[in-house]
Amino acid sequence: MSSSIQLDKKRIPRHIAVIMDGNGRWAKKKGIFRSIGHENGVDALRRTSRACSRLGVEYLTVYAFSTENWNRPKLEIDALMSILVSALRSELDILLENKIRLSAIGNIESLPKKCQRELREVHEKTSEDFEMTLTLALSYSSKDELVLATRRIAEQVKEGSIDPEEIDEKLIQEHLFTSEMPDPDLLIRTSGEHRISNYLLWQIAYAELYFCPKLWPDFKEEDLELAIEEYQRRERRFGKISEQIKAKK
Ligand code: IPE
Ligand code: IPE
Ligand code: MG
To answer: 12 near 228, Cβ under 8 Å?
Structure first.
């Protein structure tokens, strides 16, 4: 850890979600292809994953490709998909070394077959012995996720296997892609944009939001530590008053 940042090891967020934004602007500033920005984005993800695993974060969930990103020029989409496949191949050993399980959420069937195959393979190979789960949100839309969950629950009501009265927060949570994980404690967005862009809308109901002005390829371990340091300075009240939170400590 860099010397100036002191983190409380007992209050490391269990789940960090990241909107990895700014690859294109990073490349543009340098006068190079956007795809090179995305390639450098993979390096930033590797650094961040390693740092999270070293700090004891259990879940890291990153926004890699949104449903809306399908509207980008075909050339860029093709580059992104091919970077995804080559990154999955080249990063396997690093994932294994760092005991990181790779997972994916989103409309995975809409990705090219090659990507699906690679994702499945890396998931299987990293699922035996792991301490952290890295989840890639791919072809992901939070509103779509909620529509799918609603549809599945409606089907169960129609079949008569549940009553409408049984629909509660827990049931909805169980029908989301993220049913196996706790909600994010901290959401980081890079590139200076202050928006959520259809990411984990339900799950971030009580997450601490942190906006970093740096472009994603420039995001370093120290920036992650700064985000966690800021997170640790905040008081998460969950609707209560400060005195109640302090009394519980
Ligand atoms: C984030 O960087 C990566 C993806 C959305 C795939 P961008 O490509 O959105 O970069 P900017 O926002 O144009 O700089
Ligand atoms: C959000 O970034 C999606 C990812 C980081 C993959 P965008 O760059 O697509 O978001 P907007 O369009 O600027 O909100
Ligand atoms: Mg962007």
So the answer is: yes
